Amino acid sequence: MAEPKPPMPVLIGLRGSGKSTLGRALAQHLERPFIDLDDVTAMALDAPSPGEAIQRLGLLVFRAAEAEALAGVLRRRDGSVVALGGGSPTAPGAPEALGHARAEGTARICYLRASAETLAKRLGQSDLTTRPSLTGRGTVEEIADLLAQRDTLYRDLADETIETDTLSEDATLERLAAWIERPS
Q: N or C: which end of the chain has fewer CB within 10 A?
């Protein structure tokens, strides 16, 4: 009999929360594949980046493709570490797909949560050309609004929430590793 595959760790949170960076590090630590849903979605839309896809095709087209990409990734059931885009949980059908995978035990979801101030500081230090504004207010300026809109959804979807404001990258990775290695 084949040994069951471990659940996929799925990282959610706003842009700047560290999903991609920590997801890569967690995948390396666990010796598992890493999937960045933003990259999968951009590739499906034949765009060089998620930002380019959103600018060229619009947010609604991007979210629909993102929901399709998420469904495909969740069907893999190979234990990959998955970093969702900040808005992935808002894509049509995404909360249901994530909830279903969670209920089946094929995915465990962790919300990497940071305050709007921390996220704005992190984003201010990054290349904003790859992160288009979603509200027209500016990538850094819209963070507090996006956090207010999405925080409850993220919390409801998550098995675990890690508050990252005061944690280093290494400390956050340690908590992530302990969480996924802990029996569910």
A: N
**Alpha carbon distance 167, 172 (integer Å):** 6
Q: What is the dihedral of CA 55, 61, 66, 67, to 10 degrees?
A: 160
* Predicted model pTM: 0.91
Q: Is 2 contained in some domain?
A: no
Domain range for 19 is 8-177
- The Cα 61–Cα 87 span in angstroms is 13
Nearest to 41 by CA among 55, 23, 31, 53: 53
In tens digits, what is the pLDDT along the chain, a chain of 184 residues?
Answer: 556 678 999 999 998 899 999 999 999 999 999 999 999 999 999 999 888 898 899 989 999 999 999 999 999 888 999 999 999 999 999 999 999 999 999 999 999 999 988 988 876 665 544 555 455 555 556 788 888 999 999 999 999 999 999 999 999 999 999 999 887 6
* CATH number of 81's domain: 3.40.50.300
